[in-house]
Amino acid sequence: MKSYKFILFILLTAFITSCEDELEIEPRQNQDSEVTLGTETGIVNILNGAYAIAADADVFGGRSLVSADLMAQTGLTSTTDFRWRGSYGEFRQMYTKSVLVDNAFVRQIYARNYEIINAANTVIENIDKVADADKRTRMIAEANFLKSLAYFDLVRFFGLPYEAGKQNTQLGVIIRPNAIYDFNADLSKERSTVEEVYTLIIQQLNDAYNGLPEENSFYPDKYAAKALLARVYLQQQNYAAARDAANEVIESSGRALSTTYANAFNHDENQIEDIFAIQITKQTGENEIVVMYASEGNGGRGGDVEIRNTYINKFTDPNDDRANFNYVNPDNDRLLTSKYTNQYGDVGIIRLAEMYLIRAETNFRLGTSVGDTALNDINLIRTRAHAENFTALTLPTILRERELELAMEGFAIHDLKRTKGSIDVNADGSELIPYDDPTLVFPIPLREMDANKLITQNPGYGS
């Protein structure tokens, strides 16, 4: 029940950003930070604080997902699937590929992810204050999972895309291996390479997998770590590793597809399809993705992101539940997704349908049938949606199925990059924005550039 979820108000520690937009620990109620860091209760609260930051609207509470969707669209043509209709200039910059270095949403995505990383590092470095050995192991593993989630978000947004078969020496993001306690110190540091960041993410997720239990309430369990690994490996185009990780989650996690497509969304408690979800309560604020995608009556702003016919026309079966999983806002006649209509519903981050799609794609690419055939996996998802089954598959068909199933869930720009796609600017192919164009990468925020004497800005955004 929601009332039994952790309360994301930190009793002993508050989290505020420094000039570098990373985590600073400042105790409340006049407690000294050494007291907080010296008690088991304090360390547990810091870990809860990391979850609280992850649930923030700026990141996994919704804004990171919306940003990934808008970066794959363009405001210059009607050929893309979704249209930005809102008033936020920060999102409009993403939509029109004109992001500025002082974009506040970009700055907060950067800042909040580093706050998660620093909180997790703080937990790991002070874990000796926790008495029970099993609890220590679990908390370290949860901290590593959260760090991996944050680094993966950062490297995909702020670094040029990972490309299989290359050294990937392009700059990724700063790796902070240790907690920062003194923000008056010089924290200047250059960004690590994309390869180095991915290596760290995979190492941390393997550590998390080894330390997490098979069941862990609504916190990440070992299969959440394995599922995130499958996503990371897929982004690297390491298809065998992605296939095997996804297969383990499907076969061993105890999850199953929800009985209907609609049942996978808009719930207050994790459902059988959820592998990891951000918990939202009335005490911890609104689900930000609902705010952007929903009508006023469903807790949103009226539908800042509108569905275009371009997306609806991708469905070949009129009986497909996913094609009809939308509604018209009576206040402005915008066609809106029905995925986000519960203002305090949890934000789904990983669900089992994604694992079937990963297993299907990777089996098809490799000519294997680990777990099942690609055709059976795709048809399982289509059957759930009451769509006609396929009799044969092609890679474009599988990738299209991924678009239809996972649309508006924060995958669009990341999938475009890993499949080396492009955005058609003029609707006739005469001008394309390719997957590795610098305009599809966020700038290092101005605040970071001003504070960090060693960091390099991304191409196209000045020095």
TrEMBL record:
Q: Where is the SusD-like N-terminal domain?
A: 26-234
PROSITE patterns in the record: PROKAR_LIPOPROTEIN
Where in the cell is the protein located? Answer: Cell outer membrane
Is Signal among the key words of this record?
A: yes
InterPro entries noted in UniProt? SusD-like_N (IPR033985), SusD_RagB_dom (IPR012944), TPR-like_helical_dom_sf (IPR011990)
Q: Residues in domain RagB/SusD? A: 329-461
Q: Could you tell me which Pfam families the record lists for this protein?
A: SusD-like_3, SusD_RagB
| UniProt keyword annotations, A-Z | Cell outer membrane, Membrane, Signal
Chief localisation class: membrane
Q: Does the entry feature the keyword Signal, yes or no?
A: yes
Gene Ontology CC = cell outer membrane
Q: Which family does it belong to?
A: Belongs to the SusD family.
Q: Protein name, please?
A: RagB/SusD domain-containing protein
Origin organism lineage: Bacteria, Pseudomonadati, Bacteroidota, Flavobacteriia, Flavobacteriales
